[in-house]
Amino acid sequence: MSSNPCNGCAKSGSCSDTEKQRCEKDQQHQQLQQRLADIRQRILVMSGKGGVGKSTTAVNLALALARQGKRVGLLDIDLHGPSVPTLLGLEGQRPAVEDGCMVPIDIEGLKVISIGFLTQTADDALIWRGPMKTGVIQQFLRDVQWGELDYLVVDCPPGTGDEPLSIVQLLGTTSSGAVLVTTPQKVALVDVRKSVTFCRQLKLPVYGIVENMSGFVCPKCNEVIDIFKKGGGRQMAADMQVPFLGAVPVDPRMVEAGDAGTPLVTVEDSPTAAALRDIAQELQLRCSNPTAGTASLED
Ligand SMILES: Nc1ncnc2c1ncn2[C@@H]1O[C@H](COP(=O)(O)OP(=O)(O)O)[C@@H](O)[C@H]1O
Ligand SMILES: [Mg+2]
Ligand SMILES: [Zn+2]
Asked: Residue 49: CB within 6 Å of ligand 1?
């Protein structure tokens, strides 16, 4: 018996050290469940590989949903390359702490938390071991004042490793689903197949596939030109019997938008922004009916 009061169940002095550990775990689990009860839908933005535009998609979809009148949170758990602060022009910001909980940074009503807010400089090399990753992700869900949200959009690191696994385990598979981002290139398509398999194994619904960098917006006339082979994402969605959410062309303005910290989705006349806004709308339908409508090649 130890004489220190137990933080978990507050039965002063009556819990052994092992019991205390279990009590604290139980308490943390309860706190997490309470927090999650206020979040209606969780959207995990994933991809098999980096550089396909996952963060770009996550940021723009989150902002589009917020602009469509929803209460939205954006959580960046790409521990090795958090890019959400940059994409939203929030570098160097530090979330306030109230009652031991982080307060998300608010941008246009969108509530943002990124691992990038907590590291000292953008170049901080972080060495995370598996248990640390799970711990930090858990804290980002539990110890953040998310409040009531219609959607929590999560920018996951690429691949099917520790972080995506942790987040799925923490969030559960009811009211959660994945948006898989790919590009028309064959290699990227192969990787997204692995992501579909990963979701199936975890019983996580796939809300749909986004084919990013599909065609090119001409800077002169604003028309979409199909410079590469496109349509692979739709084909694969049909093959794998998951919904296809849409194709997003490359818009050279995306890079400027990212550098300026003003997401492209706010640009009215960009076909890329329009595609992202449509996907956000489509996503709302998917979330309310996740089993409906797998992709067909006709629609
Ligand atoms: N549709 C697009 N049009 C133009 N540039 C894009 C588009 N999607 C992504 N990019 C650019 O590609 C790069 C990688 O995107 P990012 O979202 O960081 O990928 P990931 O998170 O998958 O690693 C970024 O420089 C981003 O600005
Ligand atoms: Mg990224
Ligand atoms: Zn043109």
From this structure: no
How far is residue 236's CA from residue 185's CA, in Å, rounded to a whole number?
A: 12
Which tens digits make up the pLDDT trace of 37-65? 999 999 999 998 889 999 999 999 999 99
Place of tokens 């994402």: 233
Residue 248 alpha carbon, nearest atom of ligand 1: 1
| Domain boundaries, position 117 | 40-288
76: left (phi over 0), alpha (psi -120 to 50) or beta: beta
**Structural domain includes residue 142:** yes
pLDDT digits (tens, 9 = 90+) for 5-32: 666 666 666 778 888 888 888 888 899 9
Ligand 1 pocket residue status of 54, Cβ below 6 Å: yes
SS3 292: coil
- Ligand 1 near 179 CB (within 6 A): no
Residue nearest to atom 15 of ligand 1 (CA): 53
Instruction: Establish if 267 belongs to a structural domain.
Output: yes
CATH number of the domain encompassing residue 230? 3.40.50.300
